[in-house]
Amino acid sequence: MSLQDIKHIALVLSGKGGVGKSSVTTQLALALSLQGHNVGVLDIDLTGPSIPRFFGIESAKVRQAPGGWLPVQVHDGQEASDKTNGHHENGQEKNSQSGHGALYCMSLGFLLANRGDAVVWRGPKKTAMVRQFLSDVHWGPLDYLLIDTPPGTSDEHISLVETLLKSATPEQLAGAVIVTTPQAISVSDVKKEINFCRKTSVHVLGVIENMAGFVCPNCAECTDVFSKGGGKAMATEFEVPFLGSVPIDPMFIRLIEEGKAPVYPEGTVVDGQDMHQNGEKSEVGDEGLLVEKYARCSLCPVFAGIVRGLVDNINVTAG
Ligand SMILES: Nc1ncnc2c1ncn2[C@@H]1O[C@H](COP(=O)(O)OP(=O)(O)OP(=O)(O)O)[C@@H](O)[C@H]1O
Ligand code: SF4
Ligand SMILES: [Mg+2]
């Protein structure tokens, strides 16, 4: 019932921990929202739920509704508004405000009494919790539901996929995005994830290589110091689509941890976009919505491209 009005469901997987599944899930959600889609994020990492922290909503509480829970709203949908005909006080023209789709989250983190509570659950209880998360959350109509998972292929993954195969239609279950890093081109880890998908008949939507390159917050000399390209080679070898490479950006961490809008030194160009100039044009300050501040992050144009590829792959699969 709770999945009924969701158009597409995608899982985010990785062989190793700490490669950036949760930050990739977060940014896929923000980028999809910026492209006007209504998005939900379900965090089934039961031992280390980090989605509430990524969205800056750690103190939020889920509300009970008849037969289940209401997800926590990160932001409401907003139509694009064109403000260019009015003039700003200082004579400058305002940028038109781009709109965004609504964004909702559900995580075990919201249900734990204390944030730091470690949950040590055995298999059956985990399975029950995952099932409940899939059946009892009133998402409402969504274009995309992204599911952040723990590393590897554990009990949670198995019960997740089993439940999805039963309760979602094949058209709804779009497939999985696999996250890796240039270091963790420990090919065997990714291979395990791909094998897991093939065994469980979950379509592989593509691979994202995270932490490839570096956006320095101090000067623009060394952007792209780290190697990249390994992810693409690996995707080609395993015959799965490659969705893109994502650099390390300390301004993204600052945005998540301190809520500060990203700023970049002159000359910082990422994916062909001048991030310094973008920041100067933006009127969004530290008090703006996360999604508005993220639009100033160097990783935003990167994820805009990734999401376009992902949406294309999902539409092809969905026929
Ligand atoms: N491209 C990036 N730029 C900057 N920081 C990043 C980037 N990717 C990930 N991080 C940071 O690295 C840390 C680990 O990332 P994250 O929590 O997303 O990994 P994970 O794969 O979900 O980990 P786990 O296996 O524990 O669930 C986080 O603090 C995150 O903010
Ligand atoms: S970009 Fe500039 S400040 Fe950053 S590491 Fe390179 S030289 Fe140092
Ligand atoms: Mg995580």
Automatic annotation (TrEMBL):
Where do the coiled-coil regions begin and end?
none
* Segments for region (Disordered): 72-98
GO MF, one term, reads: ATP-dependent FeS chaperone activity
> Which is a Pfam family this sequence falls into?
ParA
Annotated Gene Ontology cellular component terms: cytosol
Gene Ontology process terms (BP): iron-sulfur cluster assembly
- Give the Gene3D superfamilies listed for this entry: P-loop containing nucleotide triphosphate hydrolases
Keywords of this entry? 4Fe-4S, ATP-binding, Cytoplasm, Iron, Iron-sulfur, Metal-binding, Nucleotide-binding
The record's listing under PROSITE patterns reads: MRP
> Where does it live in the cell?
Cytoplasm
Q: Does 4Fe-4S appear among the keywords?
A: yes
**Which spans does this entry mark as compositional bias, Basic and acidic residues?**
76-92
Q: Does the keyword Membrane apply?
A: no
Query: For [4Fe-4S] cluster, which residues are the binding ones?
Result: 216, 219
User: Where along the chain is ATP bound?
Assistant: 15-22
Q: Which InterPro entries did the record assign?
A: Mrp-like_CS, Mrp/NBP35_ATP-bd, NUBP2/Cfd1_eukaryotes, P-loop_NTPase, YlxH/NBP35
Q: Specify where it is mainly localized.
A: cytoplasm
Instruction: Tell me which family the UniProt entry assigns to this protein.
Output: Belongs to the Mrp/NBP35 ATP-binding proteins family. NUBP2/CFD1 subfamily.
Q: Per its UniProt record, what HAMAP family does this chain match? A: Mrp_NBP35, NUBP2
Function of this protein?
Component of the cytosolic iron-sulfur (Fe/S) protein assembly (CIA) machinery. Required for maturation of extramitochondrial Fe-S proteins. The NBP35-CFD1 heterotetramer forms a Fe-S scaffold complex, mediating the de novo assembly of an Fe-S cluster and its transfer to target apoproteins.
What is this protein called in UniProt? Answer: Cytosolic Fe-S cluster assembly factor cfd1
Q: Which organism is it from?
A: Saxophila tyrrhenica
Q: Source gene? A: CFD1
